Amino acid sequence: MNTIRTVAKNTSALVGGEAVSRVLTFLITLYIARSLGAGTLGQYAFALAFVSLFRVFADMGLNTLTTREVAKDREMAGKYLANLLTIKFVLGFLTFLLIYLAVHATGKSRELSLLVYIAALWVWMDSFGGLVQSMFSAFESMEYVAVLNVVEKATLFGLSFYALLSDVPHKLLWLISAYPISSLCAFSVGLTLLAVRGLPVRMEVDRRFWANVLRAGWPFALMGILGGIYLCTDRVLLSIIQGEDRVVGWYTAGAKAFWTVYAVQAFFYRALFPTASKTYSKSTEDYIRMLKRTGRLIFMYTIPVATVGIIWAPRIVEFFYGYDYAPTVWVLRILLINLVIKGWTGLYGSTVLNVTGRQRDFMYAVGLGALVNVVLNILLIPPLSLNGVAIATVCAEATVGFVAYLRARKVVELSVAQYIWKPALASGAMAIPWLYGRGVIWTIFGFVAFLALLWLTRCVRRQDVRFVVACFDIKR
Length: 476
What we know:
Helix content is 85%, strand content 0%. The chain has 476 residues and is an all-alpha fold.
Protein backbone atom coordinates (compact mmCIF):
# COMPACT_ATOMS: atom_id res chain seq x y z
CA MET A 1 0.00 0.00 0.00
CA ASN A 2 1.52 3.35 -1.04
CA THR A 3 1.90 6.35 1.23
CA ILE A 4 -1.21 8.17 -0.02
CA ARG A 5 -3.46 5.15 0.52
CA THR A 6 -1.93 4.44 3.94
CA VAL A 7 -2.53 7.97 5.22
CA ALA A 8 -5.96 8.05 3.57
CA LYS A 9 -6.98 4.73 5.14
CA ASN A 10 -5.75 5.82 8.55
CA THR A 11 -7.41 9.23 8.31
CA SER A 12 -10.75 7.85 7.13
CA ALA A 13 -10.72 5.24 9.92
CA LEU A 14 -9.93 7.83 12.59
CA VAL A 15 -12.32 10.44 11.25
CA GLY A 16 -15.09 7.85 10.95
CA GLY A 17 -14.62 6.66 14.51
CA GLU A 18 -14.06 10.14 15.85
CA ALA A 19 -17.14 11.46 14.06
CA VAL A 20 -19.24 9.02 16.07
CA SER A 21 -17.32 9.85 19.25
CA ARG A 22 -17.57 13.61 18.81
CA VAL A 23 -21.27 13.49 18.05
CA LEU A 24 -21.92 11.43 21.17
CA THR A 25 -19.89 13.70 23.48
CA PHE A 26 -21.40 16.80 21.88
CA LEU A 27 -24.90 15.42 22.54
CA ILE A 28 -23.96 14.88 26.19
CA THR A 29 -22.73 18.47 26.53
CA LEU A 30 -25.78 19.75 24.68
CA TYR A 31 -28.21 17.86 26.91
CA ILE A 32 -26.45 19.00 30.09
CA ALA A 33 -26.54 22.59 28.83
CA ARG A 34 -30.25 22.48 28.00
CA SER A 35 -31.57 20.35 30.88
CA LEU A 36 -29.30 21.18 33.82
CA GLY A 37 -28.28 24.74 32.91
CA ALA A 38 -25.07 26.69 32.39
CA GLY A 39 -24.12 26.52 36.09
CA THR A 40 -24.09 22.72 36.19
CA LEU A 41 -22.27 22.61 32.85
CA GLY A 42 -19.67 24.93 34.36
CA GLN A 43 -19.06 22.58 37.32
CA TYR A 44 -18.88 19.60 34.97
CA ALA A 45 -16.37 21.42 32.75
CA PHE A 46 -14.26 22.62 35.69
CA ALA A 47 -13.78 19.10 37.08
CA LEU A 48 -12.68 17.72 33.71
CA ALA A 49 -10.48 20.72 32.89
CA PHE A 50 -8.79 20.67 36.30
CA VAL A 51 -7.72 17.03 36.09
CA SER A 52 -6.70 17.51 32.45
CA LEU A 53 -3.96 19.83 33.69
CA PHE A 54 -2.36 16.76 35.29
CA ARG A 55 -2.97 14.17 32.54
CA VAL A 56 0.55 14.40 31.20
CA PHE A 57 2.00 13.23 34.54
CA ALA A 58 0.25 9.88 34.04
CA ASP A 59 1.81 9.59 30.59
CA MET A 60 5.11 11.53 30.62
CA GLY A 61 5.17 11.64 26.82
CA LEU A 62 5.45 7.85 26.55
CA ASN A 63 2.50 7.38 24.19
CA THR A 64 3.96 9.62 21.49
CA LEU A 65 7.39 8.09 21.99
CA THR A 66 5.93 4.59 21.67
CA THR A 67 4.19 5.44 18.40
CA ARG A 68 7.37 6.88 16.90
CA GLU A 69 9.77 4.16 18.02
CA VAL A 70 7.55 1.12 17.42
CA ALA A 71 6.64 2.48 13.97
CA LYS A 72 10.36 2.30 13.16
CA ASP A 73 10.95 -1.13 14.74
CA ARG A 74 7.86 -3.25 15.37
CA GLU A 75 9.93 -5.99 16.98
CA MET A 76 10.11 -3.74 20.05
CA ALA A 77 6.32 -3.63 20.49
CA GLY A 78 6.20 -6.33 23.18
CA LYS A 79 9.02 -4.72 25.14
CA TYR A 80 7.33 -1.31 25.13
CA LEU A 81 3.91 -2.68 26.08
CA ALA A 82 5.13 -4.80 29.00
CA ASN A 83 7.28 -2.09 30.58
CA LEU A 84 4.97 0.83 29.93
CA LEU A 85 2.02 -0.96 31.53
CA THR A 86 4.04 -1.08 34.74
CA ILE A 87 5.35 2.47 34.42
CA LYS A 88 1.87 3.84 33.82
CA PHE A 89 0.45 2.04 36.85
CA VAL A 90 2.99 3.83 39.04
CA LEU A 91 2.60 7.18 37.28
CA GLY A 92 -1.19 6.98 37.45
CA PHE A 93 -1.19 6.43 41.21
CA LEU A 94 1.22 9.33 41.78
CA THR A 95 -0.89 11.57 39.52
CA PHE A 96 -4.03 10.75 41.50
CA LEU A 97 -2.29 11.81 44.73
CA LEU A 98 -1.07 15.02 43.08
CA ILE A 99 -4.61 15.93 41.94
CA TYR A 100 -5.98 15.15 45.42
CA LEU A 101 -3.53 17.61 47.00
CA ALA A 102 -3.95 20.26 44.30
CA VAL A 103 -7.74 20.51 44.50
CA HIS A 104 -7.51 21.13 48.24
CA ALA A 105 -5.31 24.14 47.55
CA THR A 106 -8.01 25.76 45.38
CA GLY A 107 -10.53 26.00 48.22
CA LYS A 108 -13.37 24.59 46.13
CA SER A 109 -16.45 23.13 47.81
CA ARG A 110 -16.54 19.55 49.08
CA GLU A 111 -19.05 18.55 46.39
CA LEU A 112 -16.92 19.95 43.56
CA SER A 113 -13.77 18.39 45.05
CA LEU A 114 -15.47 14.98 45.02
CA LEU A 115 -16.17 15.41 41.30
CA VAL A 116 -12.48 16.16 40.76
CA TYR A 117 -11.42 13.00 42.66
CA ILE A 118 -13.61 10.84 40.43
CA ALA A 119 -12.35 12.61 37.31
CA ALA A 120 -8.80 11.85 38.52
CA LEU A 121 -9.59 8.14 38.18
CA TRP A 122 -10.44 8.87 34.55
CA VAL A 123 -6.96 10.33 34.01
CA TRP A 124 -5.46 7.11 35.40
CA MET A 125 -7.59 4.80 33.23
CA ASP A 126 -7.21 7.01 30.16
CA SER A 127 -3.43 6.76 30.42
CA PHE A 128 -3.64 2.98 29.97
CA GLY A 129 -6.04 3.40 27.06
CA GLY A 130 -3.69 5.87 25.40
CA LEU A 131 -0.88 3.32 25.54
CA VAL A 132 -2.96 0.71 23.73
CA GLN A 133 -3.97 3.24 21.09
CA SER A 134 -0.36 4.29 20.58
CA MET A 135 0.53 0.67 19.81
CA PHE A 136 -2.14 0.45 17.11
CA SER A 137 -1.03 3.84 15.75
CA ALA A 138 2.52 2.51 15.44
CA PHE A 139 1.17 -0.49 13.50
CA GLU A 140 -0.71 2.02 11.27
CA SER A 141 -3.92 0.17 12.17
CA MET A 142 -6.05 3.22 12.82
CA GLU A 143 -9.27 1.26 12.37
CA TYR A 144 -8.57 -0.30 15.78
CA VAL A 145 -8.01 3.16 17.27
CA ALA A 146 -11.36 4.18 15.81
CA VAL A 147 -13.05 1.10 17.30
CA LEU A 148 -11.63 1.87 20.75
CA ASN A 149 -12.76 5.49 20.50
CA VAL A 150 -16.28 4.40 19.62
CA VAL A 151 -16.35 1.82 22.45
CA GLU A 152 -15.25 4.45 24.96
CA LYS A 153 -17.63 7.17 23.79
CA ALA A 154 -20.58 4.80 23.34
CA THR A 155 -20.14 3.60 26.93
CA LEU A 156 -19.81 7.20 28.09
CA PHE A 157 -22.92 8.16 26.12
CA GLY A 158 -24.97 5.28 27.52
CA LEU A 159 -24.03 5.90 31.14
CA SER A 160 -24.44 9.67 30.81
CA PHE A 161 -27.88 9.51 29.27
CA TYR A 162 -28.96 6.96 31.82
CA ALA A 163 -28.09 9.51 34.48
CA LEU A 164 -29.74 12.38 32.60
CA LEU A 165 -32.98 10.61 31.70
CA SER A 166 -33.54 8.58 34.87
CA ASP A 167 -34.48 9.70 38.37
CA VAL A 168 -31.12 8.90 39.97
CA PRO A 169 -29.95 11.40 42.58
CA HIS A 170 -26.66 13.28 42.23
CA LYS A 171 -26.80 13.36 38.43
CA LEU A 172 -23.53 15.28 38.13
CA LEU A 173 -21.73 12.60 40.14
CA TRP A 174 -23.02 9.96 37.73
CA LEU A 175 -21.98 12.03 34.72
CA ILE A 176 -18.39 12.35 35.93
CA SER A 177 -18.23 8.68 37.00
CA ALA A 178 -19.05 7.67 33.43
CA TYR A 179 -15.59 8.85 32.31
CA PRO A 180 -13.34 6.40 34.24
CA ILE A 181 -15.76 3.52 33.60
CA SER A 182 -15.81 4.12 29.83
CA SER A 183 -12.01 4.48 29.68
CA LEU A 184 -11.59 1.20 31.56
CA CYS A 185 -13.92 -0.55 29.10
CA ALA A 186 -12.00 0.76 26.08
CA PHE A 187 -8.66 -0.23 27.63
CA SER A 188 -9.90 -3.77 28.30
CA VAL A 189 -11.10 -4.15 24.71
CA GLY A 190 -7.83 -2.75 23.34
CA LEU A 191 -5.70 -5.06 25.45
CA THR A 192 -7.75 -8.03 24.25
CA LEU A 193 -7.26 -6.99 20.61
CA LEU A 194 -3.49 -6.72 21.12
CA ALA A 195 -3.45 -10.21 22.64
CA VAL A 196 -5.43 -11.57 19.67
CA ARG A 197 -2.80 -10.06 17.35
CA GLY A 198 -0.18 -12.13 19.17
CA LEU A 199 1.36 -9.42 21.33
CA PRO A 200 2.21 -10.77 24.80
CA VAL A 201 0.24 -8.90 27.47
CA ARG A 202 2.24 -8.80 30.66
CA MET A 203 3.91 -6.37 33.07
CA GLU A 204 7.67 -6.13 33.19
CA VAL A 205 10.31 -4.15 35.08
CA ASP A 206 13.48 -3.38 33.13
CA ARG A 207 15.18 -0.53 34.95
CA ARG A 208 17.59 0.29 32.14
CA PHE A 209 14.73 0.39 29.63
CA TRP A 210 12.68 2.54 32.01
CA ALA A 211 15.54 5.03 32.29
CA ASN A 212 15.97 5.16 28.52
CA VAL A 213 12.30 5.73 27.67
CA LEU A 214 11.76 8.28 30.43
CA ARG A 215 14.85 10.16 29.27
CA ALA A 216 13.69 10.08 25.65
CA GLY A 217 10.11 10.92 26.53
CA TRP A 218 10.69 13.93 28.77
CA PRO A 219 10.58 16.50 25.92
CA PHE A 220 7.18 15.09 24.90
CA ALA A 221 6.16 15.14 28.58
CA LEU A 222 7.24 18.72 29.13
CA MET A 223 5.51 19.68 25.91
CA GLY A 224 2.38 17.96 27.22
CA ILE A 225 2.61 19.83 30.52
CA LEU A 226 2.98 23.15 28.75
CA GLY A 227 0.29 22.20 26.25
CA GLY A 228 -2.06 21.28 29.07
CA ILE A 229 -1.47 24.67 30.67
CA TYR A 230 -2.63 26.63 27.65
CA LEU A 231 -5.37 24.18 26.67
CA CYS A 232 -6.97 23.64 30.07
CA THR A 233 -6.15 26.64 32.26
CA ASP A 234 -8.78 28.71 30.45
CA ARG A 235 -11.77 27.19 32.27
CA VAL A 236 -9.86 26.80 35.54
CA LEU A 237 -8.76 30.45 35.62
CA LEU A 238 -12.19 31.61 34.42
CA SER A 239 -13.80 29.72 37.32
CA ILE A 240 -11.33 31.05 39.89
CA ILE A 241 -11.26 34.69 38.70
CA GLN A 242 -14.94 35.12 37.73
CA GLY A 243 -16.33 32.76 40.37
CA GLU A 244 -19.49 32.05 38.35
CA ASP A 245 -20.22 28.53 37.14
CA ARG A 246 -22.60 29.75 34.43
CA VAL A 247 -19.84 31.84 32.79
CA VAL A 248 -17.69 28.71 32.60
CA GLY A 249 -20.70 26.92 31.13
CA TRP A 250 -21.13 29.55 28.39
CA TYR A 251 -17.47 29.32 27.46
CA THR A 252 -17.54 25.51 27.53
CA ALA A 253 -20.49 25.47 25.12
CA GLY A 254 -18.52 27.45 22.53
CA ALA A 255 -15.30 25.54 23.12
CA LYS A 256 -17.09 22.20 22.73
CA ALA A 257 -18.50 23.27 19.37
CA PHE A 258 -15.02 24.34 18.25
CA TRP A 259 -13.32 21.10 19.32
CA THR A 260 -15.99 19.10 17.50
CA VAL A 261 -15.13 20.87 14.24
CA TYR A 262 -11.39 20.69 14.94
CA ALA A 263 -11.52 16.89 15.26
CA VAL A 264 -11.12 16.32 11.51
CA GLN A 265 -7.72 17.97 11.23
CA ALA A 266 -6.58 16.70 14.62
CA PHE A 267 -7.08 13.11 13.57
CA PHE A 268 -5.65 13.77 10.13
CA TYR A 269 -2.38 14.82 11.77
CA ARG A 270 -2.55 11.90 14.17
CA ALA A 271 -2.98 9.46 11.29
CA LEU A 272 -0.16 11.16 9.38
CA PHE A 273 2.38 11.02 12.23
CA PRO A 274 3.51 7.34 12.03
CA THR A 275 3.51 7.34 8.22
CA ALA A 276 5.45 10.62 8.10
CA SER A 277 7.99 9.23 10.59
CA LYS A 278 8.55 6.16 8.44
CA THR A 279 8.68 8.17 5.20
CA TYR A 280 11.22 10.64 6.64
CA SER A 281 13.52 7.78 7.67
CA LYS A 282 13.47 6.40 4.10
CA SER A 283 13.31 9.36 1.71
CA THR A 284 13.56 13.10 2.37
CA GLU A 285 12.10 13.90 -1.06
CA ASP A 286 9.00 11.79 -0.45
CA TYR A 287 8.65 13.36 2.99
CA ILE A 288 8.73 16.92 1.60
CA ARG A 289 6.22 15.93 -1.09
CA MET A 290 3.96 14.64 1.68
CA LEU A 291 4.31 17.92 3.60
CA LYS A 292 3.27 19.98 0.57
CA ARG A 293 0.16 17.91 0.00
CA THR A 294 -0.64 18.12 3.71
CA GLY A 295 -0.41 21.92 3.67
CA ARG A 296 -2.68 22.20 0.65
CA LEU A 297 -5.33 19.87 2.07
CA ILE A 298 -5.36 21.26 5.59
CA PHE A 299 -5.91 24.91 4.58
CA MET A 300 -8.44 23.90 1.94
CA TYR A 301 -10.46 22.51 4.87
CA THR A 302 -9.80 24.95 7.72
CA ILE A 303 -10.26 28.32 5.99
CA PRO A 304 -13.71 27.67 4.44
CA VAL A 305 -15.03 25.91 7.56
CA ALA A 306 -13.84 28.75 9.81
CA THR A 307 -15.48 31.29 7.49
CA VAL A 308 -18.82 29.47 7.52
CA GLY A 309 -18.73 29.07 11.31
CA ILE A 310 -17.87 32.71 12.02
CA ILE A 311 -20.71 34.03 9.85
CA TRP A 312 -23.31 31.53 11.02
CA ALA A 313 -22.27 31.47 14.70
CA PRO A 314 -25.47 33.15 16.01
CA ARG A 315 -27.67 30.61 14.25
CA ILE A 316 -25.49 27.70 15.34
CA VAL A 317 -25.57 28.70 19.01
CA GLU A 318 -29.29 29.44 18.99
CA PHE A 319 -30.11 26.14 17.27
CA PHE A 320 -28.04 23.93 19.56
CA TYR A 321 -28.06 25.74 22.90
CA GLY A 322 -30.93 28.23 22.84
CA TYR A 323 -31.28 31.96 23.63
CA ASP A 324 -29.81 31.60 27.13
CA TYR A 325 -26.39 30.96 25.59
CA ALA A 326 -26.14 34.22 23.60
CA PRO A 327 -22.74 35.07 25.23
CA THR A 328 -21.36 31.93 23.56
CA VAL A 329 -21.64 33.44 20.05
CA TRP A 330 -18.51 35.57 20.18
CA VAL A 331 -16.58 32.85 21.98
CA LEU A 332 -17.26 30.51 19.07
CA ARG A 333 -16.37 33.16 16.50
CA ILE A 334 -13.04 33.94 18.12
CA LEU A 335 -12.12 30.29 18.65
CA LEU A 336 -12.86 29.42 15.01
CA ILE A 337 -9.90 31.61 14.00
CA ASN A 338 -7.85 29.00 15.83
CA LEU A 339 -8.96 26.36 13.33
CA VAL A 340 -6.68 27.90 10.69
CA ILE A 341 -3.86 28.63 13.12
CA LYS A 342 -3.90 25.06 14.44
CA GLY A 343 -3.59 23.81 10.87
CA TRP A 344 -0.37 25.82 10.59
CA THR A 345 0.90 24.64 13.99
CA GLY A 346 0.16 20.99 13.23
CA LEU A 347 2.07 21.20 9.95
CA TYR A 348 5.26 22.77 11.29
CA GLY A 349 5.09 21.40 14.83
CA SER A 350 3.76 17.86 14.80
CA THR A 351 4.56 16.93 11.20
CA VAL A 352 8.01 18.57 10.95
CA LEU A 353 9.58 19.07 14.37
CA ASN A 354 8.21 15.97 16.13
CA VAL A 355 8.73 13.69 13.12
CA THR A 356 12.33 14.78 12.57
CA GLY A 357 13.28 14.25 16.22
CA ARG A 358 13.27 17.95 17.12
CA GLN A 359 10.52 17.71 19.71
CA ARG A 360 12.53 19.95 22.03
CA ASP A 361 12.13 22.82 19.57
CA PHE A 362 8.37 22.26 19.54
CA MET A 363 8.46 22.07 23.33
CA TYR A 364 9.97 25.57 23.47
CA ALA A 365 7.21 26.83 21.18
CA VAL A 366 4.49 25.28 23.34
CA GLY A 367 6.15 26.64 26.48
CA LEU A 368 6.10 30.18 25.16
CA GLY A 369 2.48 29.70 24.10
CA ALA A 370 1.58 28.49 27.60
CA LEU A 371 3.19 31.57 29.13
CA VAL A 372 1.32 33.88 26.75
CA ASN A 373 -1.94 32.09 27.51
CA VAL A 374 -1.67 32.32 31.29
CA VAL A 375 -0.58 35.98 31.26
CA LEU A 376 -3.31 37.04 28.82
CA ASN A 377 -5.97 35.10 30.72
CA ILE A 378 -5.07 36.91 33.93
CA LEU A 379 -5.07 40.28 32.13
CA LEU A 380 -8.14 39.81 29.91
CA ILE A 381 -10.61 37.85 32.07
CA PRO A 382 -11.45 40.77 34.44
CA PRO A 383 -12.42 43.25 31.66
CA LEU A 384 -13.59 40.85 28.92
CA SER A 385 -14.73 37.75 30.85
CA LEU A 386 -15.18 34.67 28.62
CA ASN A 387 -14.31 36.59 25.42
CA GLY A 388 -10.94 37.40 26.97
CA VAL A 389 -10.30 33.68 27.47
CA ALA A 390 -11.03 33.02 23.79
CA ILE A 391 -8.70 35.84 22.68
CA ALA A 392 -5.94 34.52 24.95
CA THR A 393 -6.35 31.03 23.46
CA VAL A 394 -5.98 32.33 19.89
CA CYS A 395 -2.93 34.46 20.76
CA ALA A 396 -1.28 31.50 22.49
CA GLU A 397 -1.80 29.23 19.48
CA ALA A 398 -0.47 31.92 17.13
CA THR A 399 2.66 32.15 19.28
CA VAL A 400 3.20 28.40 19.13
CA GLY A 401 2.66 28.33 15.37
CA PHE A 402 5.06 31.20 14.70
CA VAL A 403 7.88 29.79 16.84
CA ALA A 404 7.36 26.29 15.36
CA TYR A 405 7.63 27.80 11.88
CA LEU A 406 10.92 29.54 12.73
CA ARG A 407 12.36 26.30 14.13
CA ALA A 408 11.05 24.13 11.28
CA ARG A 409 12.64 26.41 8.66
CA LYS A 410 16.02 25.11 9.79
CA VAL A 411 14.94 21.57 8.88
CA VAL A 412 12.97 21.91 5.63
CA GLU A 413 12.12 24.75 3.28
CA LEU A 414 8.33 24.72 3.19
CA SER A 415 6.32 27.79 2.26
CA VAL A 416 2.56 27.45 2.73
CA ALA A 417 1.55 30.94 1.60
CA GLN A 418 0.69 29.49 -1.81
CA TYR A 419 -1.75 27.10 -0.10
CA ILE A 420 -3.50 29.82 1.91
CA TRP A 421 -4.45 32.55 -0.56
CA LYS A 422 -6.57 30.36 -2.85
CA PRO A 423 -9.02 29.01 -0.23
CA ALA A 424 -8.95 32.44 1.47
CA LEU A 425 -10.01 34.13 -1.78
CA ALA A 426 -12.75 31.57 -2.39
CA SER A 427 -13.99 31.85 1.21
CA GLY A 428 -14.08 35.65 0.95
CA ALA A 429 -16.17 35.41 -2.21
CA MET A 430 -18.55 33.12 -0.33
CA ALA A 431 -18.75 35.41 2.71
CA ILE A 432 -19.64 38.65 0.90
CA PRO A 433 -23.12 37.54 -0.35
CA TRP A 434 -23.88 36.07 3.07
CA LEU A 435 -22.94 39.27 4.90
CA TYR A 436 -24.78 41.70 2.63
CA GLY A 437 -27.61 39.54 1.31
CA ARG A 438 -30.47 37.65 2.90
CA GLY A 439 -32.36 34.53 1.93
CA VAL A 440 -31.74 31.21 0.24
CA ILE A 441 -30.73 32.75 -3.11
CA TRP A 442 -27.81 34.65 -1.60
CA THR A 443 -26.74 31.58 0.36
CA ILE A 444 -26.67 29.49 -2.80
CA PHE A 445 -24.87 32.27 -4.67
CA GLY A 446 -22.16 32.30 -2.00
CA PHE A 447 -21.59 28.57 -2.32
CA VAL A 448 -21.46 28.80 -6.12
CA ALA A 449 -18.91 31.63 -5.95
CA PHE A 450 -16.81 29.57 -3.55
CA LEU A 451 -16.80 26.48 -5.77
CA ALA A 452 -16.13 28.53 -8.90
CA LEU A 453 -13.05 30.18 -7.44
CA LEU A 454 -11.75 26.86 -6.15
CA TRP A 455 -11.98 25.55 -9.70
CA LEU A 456 -10.54 28.66 -11.39
CA THR A 457 -7.54 28.82 -9.04
CA ARG A 458 -6.98 25.06 -9.31
CA CYS A 459 -7.04 24.79 -5.54
CA VAL A 460 -8.15 21.17 -5.86
CA ARG A 461 -5.77 18.93 -7.80
CA ARG A 462 -6.02 15.48 -9.28
CA GLN A 463 -3.81 14.10 -6.49
CA ASP A 464 -6.29 15.43 -3.93
CA VAL A 465 -9.14 13.65 -5.69
CA ARG A 466 -7.10 10.46 -5.55
CA PHE A 467 -6.59 11.02 -1.84
CA VAL A 468 -10.36 11.32 -1.27
CA VAL A 469 -10.97 8.26 -3.46
CA ALA A 470 -8.44 6.34 -1.37
CA CYS A 471 -10.15 7.49 1.83
CA PHE A 472 -13.39 5.82 0.83
CA ASP A 473 -11.72 2.98 -1.06
CA ILE A 474 -13.61 3.85 -4.25
CA LYS A 475 -12.72 1.74 -7.28
CA ARG A 476 -12.39 3.78 -10.42
